[in-house]
Design goal:
single chain; alpha+beta; Rossmann fold; OB fold (Dihydrolipoamide Acetyltransferase, E2P); 6-stranded mixed beta sheet; binds adenosine-5'-triphosphate; ATP hydrolysis activity; ABC-type quaternary ammonium compound transporting activity; nucleotide-binding; EC 7.6.2.9; ATP-binding
């Protein structure tokens, strides 16, 4: 199986202007996305932004009103789900309760008229691959949630799909199992080199597993980029605030294309912004805080995060900001301390001043 995948038959996927409405609701509003062979792309976005609908269109369960789905350059928009070469894992375990693990994994092979001995061998191979070599005769009710998702994954992979589609496969599991399975799914996906689209609303999951994260908003793609890129250089204020923690601090863009914020002038990154009052977007680790008896800002709370501590600070104008510091340094700045707050000298993203 590995060798077959390594040979590089992974699918490249292209979504072109997908539109799908349900009555008055526009679930997909011109979604464009390209996935490279062997890539894992996570679809991330707020509830209702169209992630699941996009995946269902990819799987063929949903027909778009317009737009196209291309796999390896071939237009499959009108190909029915059962004739598409996709494996799918859902949030709920969705195993057949009356079949044991081996029967579940072999199900798709039976549909494809693979001989029984080969089915059995393949099912055992896949169960070993997902870490359940001795569970072939266990029924779903005899398996934990995590084990059921492993079986579901083995079932999806058994037919050697060109495309693997995962719809929140970990969200029903407890935190610890979720972390383990995250790593295992990623390891398997890399090992098999299978092109994968993964829907999640958990940004940590998306950032830790994906080659690229596609942030969706209102049925469209807002930005698709590698996790570090998305975090460091969000293309829009929406992405900046959706991914990771973010401060909004009042500032002023002058004529020179620089912004003045917290008494410091910084270069502006991203879309051009006209001179005037703005909000400056700065991450908690982008602020420097120092104790200062004459300071006009005050620490109003601290949250211990482990190696770092997050300070809640009220600025002179009443703006609440968060600043992350090494925990040993934050120990010197308990609640009530007067401080000065300054941004690190890095380009920042600015946005229209939010209505207060
Ligand atoms: P969540 O994270 O909450 O699962 P999502 O990003 O997956 O959300 P979708 O489930 O794709 O979003 O839904 C997008 C929009 O389309 C929502 O407003 C939803 O209510 C609507 N919608 C989806 N499927 C249908 C349907 N079968 N009938 C009517 N409306 C639907």
């Amino acid at each position: 199986l590995d060798a077959e995948r390594a040979a590089g038959s992974g699918a490249a996927l292209e979504l072109r202007g997908l539109r799908r409405t349900f009555g008055a609701t526009t679930a997909l509003d011109g979604l464009d996305l390209t996935v490279e062979p062997g890539e894992l792309v996570a679809l991330l976005g707020p509830s209702g932004c169209g992630k699941t609908t996009a995946l269902r269109v990819l799987a063929g369960f949903e027909r778009p009103d317009s737009g196209a789905v291309l796999v390896d350059g071939e237009d499959i928009t009108r190909v029915p789900a059962h004739r598409r070469d996709t494996g799918m894992v859902f949030q709920s375990y969705s195993l057949f309760p009356n079949l044991d693990a081996r029967g579940n994994v072999a199900f798709g092979l039976r549909m494809r008229k693979v001989a029984s001995a080969e089915r059995r061998a393949r099912a055992e191979e896949l169960l070993a691959l997902v870490g359940l070599p001795d569970h072939g005769t266990h029924y779903p009710h005899q398996l934990s949630g995590g084990q059921q998702q492993r079986v579901a994954l083995a079932r999806a992979l058994a037919v050697r799909p060109r495309l693997l589609l995962l719809d929140e496969p970990l969200s029903a599991l407890d935190a610890k199992v979720r972390l383990t399975l995250r790593e295992e799914i990623r390891r398997l996906q890399l090992e098999l080199g299978i092109t994968t689209v993964f829907v999640t609303h958990d940004q940590e999951e998306a950032l830790s597993m994906a080659d690229r994260v596609a942030v969706m908003r209102g049925g469209r793609l807002e930005q698709c980029a590698a996790p570090a890129e998305l975090y460091a250089r969000p293309a829009t204020a929406f992405v900046a605030e959706f991914v990771g923690a973010m401060n909004r601090i009042p500032g002023h863009v002058g004529g020179s294309g620089e912004v003045e914020v917290l008494g410091t002038r910084l270069p502006v990154e991203g879309p051009h912004t006209d001179a005037g009052e703005v909000d400056v977007l700065i991450r908690p680790e982008g602020l420097e805080v120092a104790a200062d008896d004459g300071g006009t800002a005050r620490v109003v709370g601290t949250t211990f995060l482990g190696a770092t501590t997050r300070l809640s600070i009220r600025l002179a104008d009443g703006t609440a900001v968060k600043a992350d510091m090494a925990t040993h340094a934050a120990a010197e700045l308990p609640s009530g301390t007067l401080v000065t707050v300054a941004p690190h000298a890095r380009p920042v993203l600015v946005d229209r001043r939010a209505a207060t």
